[in-house]
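sry for the spam today, last one i promise. C-alpha cells for design, 453 residues
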C-alpha cells in the first residue's frame, strides 16, 4: 500500500540512493532521491514529504545542515541521519538539531525498514496529538463562545485579560449558564494550556469523600483505601483545578484547601509528608458566598483567597439576543451527530424560544433544541413541536377568541404600546424596559396590532 506523502532520500552516492529507494519502494513507499543536498532542500520547500533520510557526509552541505534546513521549514517532518562513523560529537549535534533517528552504515534492509516504520509511527502519533490539542484549544477560543449580547461580551473581555495571569477566580452564575465553559476558556487561553484541566463538582460527592478526592490518601488511611491515590489538586499540577459549586465544600475540606493555598503544598490523608504543587484555582458557585459566610457555612479567609477576581455570568433571560445564535449552533451540532439537514426554526418557533424565561438557562435551551430536533422531520422546527417542551407565553389569551373582555384587552394593549413607542420615539429596547417585558414580546405585539416602531 503506497503512502500519500513520499520519502525524500538525500545522498551524494547514487548507488546508495538507488539501494535505499529500492528497499522503500518494495515496502510500499513512494520515494524521491537527490544526489545534491542543495536540490533536495530546495525541493522540500515546494512539497510535502512524510520523511527525509540524509547522509551526514556530503560535499558543500552536510547532513546536519540539511537537518537544520528541513526543521526550519517544517519542524514536524521527521529526519533520519545516515552515517558511517557515529561519533559522539555527530550524534549529539544531530539530536540537538532535531534528528529523529540515526542509522549506521552499512545496514541491512530490515534494519532500515524498522527505523523508518518506527519514526513514521511516532510522527503519526505526534501529529494526532497536535491535531487533538489544536481542536481542543479551538473549542475554547474566545470567538467560539457564542454570543453578541453586552453581558457576554463583558465576560469575554474580562476572561481575555485574566487568562494569561494566575489570579484565582470565582465564576458566579445560575445553574446552566456555562460556568465550566468559561473556566475552560480561561485555562486554554493561559500559559498553562498544555497542562491538565481538572474539574471537580463539589456538590456531587458526599462530604466524607471530598477531602480524599481533593488531597488524595495513603493506603490504609481509612476503610476502603486499598492503595495510594493522588488527589485532584496533585493531578492538576502545573495546570488548572476547577472547583464547581465551591459553596458545597465541607468546613473541614475548606480548612485543608485554605492551608494548601497559603503554603502551596498538600498532605495526602494518612501521610506524614508534604507535596509541593503549583496549580491555578478557578472556582464557581450558584449561591451567595457572602451570605454563606454570615451563616458560618463558608470561611471568610478562604473566600478572599479564592476571590482574586470574580466573573458574573448573565442568565439566558438577560441575553435573549443570543438565543437565536445558540439555538442555531445546537441545531448544527445535532445535524452532524444524527446526519440530518434541519435548517432551523420557523419564525413563530424562534419567537417562542426567545420569549421563554429559561430557568435552566443554556443547558435547558440545549435540551429543548435537541429534543425538538429529534422529534421533527421537517426542514424547519415549528411552534407546535416547541410547545411540547416549553410553555409559550401569552398563547392561551391570544388563542382564546373573541368576547367583550378580549376585545377590551386588545384595545387597551394596542393603545398602551402605541403610546409607549411614541413616548420613546420608536426605541423598542427602552420601551420594552419601561413595560417590563423583553424586546421579542414587544415586537410580537407590534406585529399583532400593526404598530410602527
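last one done:
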Amino acid at each position: 500500500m503506497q503512502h500519500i506523502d513520499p520519502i525524500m532520500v538525500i545522498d551524494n552516492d547514487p548507488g546508495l540512493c538507488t539501494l535505499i529507494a529500492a528497499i522503500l519502494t518494495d515496502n510500499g513507499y513512494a520515494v524521491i532521491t537527490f544526489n545534491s543536498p542543495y536540490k533536495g532542500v530546495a525541493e522540500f520547500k515546494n512539497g510535502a514529504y512524510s520523511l527525509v533520510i540524509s547522509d551526514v557526509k556530503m560535499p558543500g552541505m552536510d547532513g546536519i545542515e540539511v537537518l537544520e534546513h528541513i526543521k526550519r521549514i517544517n519542524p514536524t517532518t521527521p529526519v533520519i541521519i545516515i552515517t558511517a562513523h557515529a561519533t559522539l560529537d555527530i550524534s549529539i549535534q544531530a539530536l540537538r538539531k532535531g534528528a529523529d533517528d540515526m542509522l549506521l552504515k552499512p545496514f541491512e534492509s530490515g534494519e532500515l525498514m524498522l527505523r523508518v516504520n518506527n519514526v513514521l509511527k511516532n510522527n503519526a502519533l505526534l501529529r494526532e496529538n497536535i491535531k487533538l490539542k489544536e481542536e481542543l484549544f479551538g473549542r475554547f477560543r474566545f470567538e467560539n463562545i457564542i454570543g453578541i449580547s453586552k453581558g457576554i461580551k463583558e465576560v469575554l473581555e474580562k476572561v481575555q485579560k485574566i487568562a494569561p495571569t494566575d489570579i484565582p477566580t470565582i465564576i458566579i452564575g445560575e445553574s446552566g449558564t456555562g460556568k465550566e465553559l468559561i473556566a475552560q476558556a480561561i485555562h486554554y487561553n493561559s500559559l498553562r494550556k498544555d497542562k491538565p484541566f481538572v474539574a471537580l463538582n463539589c456538590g456531587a460527592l458526599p462530604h466524607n469523600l471530598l477531602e480524599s478526592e481533593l488531597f488524595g490518601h495513603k493506603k490504609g488511611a481509612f476503610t476502603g483505601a486499598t492503595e495510594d491515590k493522588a488527589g485532584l489538586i496533585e493531578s492538576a499540577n502545573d495546570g488548572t483545578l476547577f472547583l464547581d459549586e465551591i459553596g458545597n465544600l465541607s468546613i473541614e475540606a475548606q480548612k485543608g484547601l485554605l492551608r494548601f493555598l497559603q503554603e502551596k503544598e498538600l498532605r495526602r490523608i494518612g501521610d506524614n509528608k508534604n507535596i509541593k504543587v503549583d496549580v491555578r484555582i478557578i472556582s464557581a458557585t450558584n449561591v451567595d458566598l457572602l451570605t454563606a459566610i454570615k451563616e458560618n457555612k463558608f470561611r471568610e479567609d478562604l473566600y478572599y483567597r479564592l476571590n482574586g477576581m470574580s466573573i458574573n455570568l448573565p442568565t439566558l433571560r438577560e441575553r435573549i439576543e443570543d438565543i437565536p445564535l445558540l439555538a442555531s449552533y445546537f441545531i448544527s451540532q445535532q445535524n452532524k451527530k444524527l446526519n440530518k439537514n434541519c435548517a432551523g426554526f420557523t419564525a413563530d418557533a424562534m419567537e417562542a424560544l426567545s420569549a421563554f424565561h429559561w430557568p435552566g438557562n443554556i443547558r435547558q435551551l440545549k435540551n429543548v433544541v435537541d429534543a425538538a430536533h429529534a422529534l421533527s422531520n421537517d426542514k424547519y422546527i415549528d411552534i407546535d413541536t416547541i410547545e411540547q417542551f416549553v410553555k409559550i407565553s401569552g398563547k392561551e389569551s391570544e388563542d382564546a377568541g373573541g368576547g367583550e373582555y378580549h376585545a377590551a384587552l386588545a384595545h387597551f394593549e394596542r393603545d398602551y404600546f402605541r403610546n409607549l413607542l411614541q413616548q420613546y420615539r420608536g426605541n423598542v429596547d427602552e420601551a420594552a424596559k419601561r413595560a417590563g417585558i423583553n424586546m421579542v414580546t414587544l415586537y410580537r405585539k407590534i406585529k399583532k396590532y400593526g404598530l410602527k416602531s
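The radius of gyration is 32 Å. ok im logging off now
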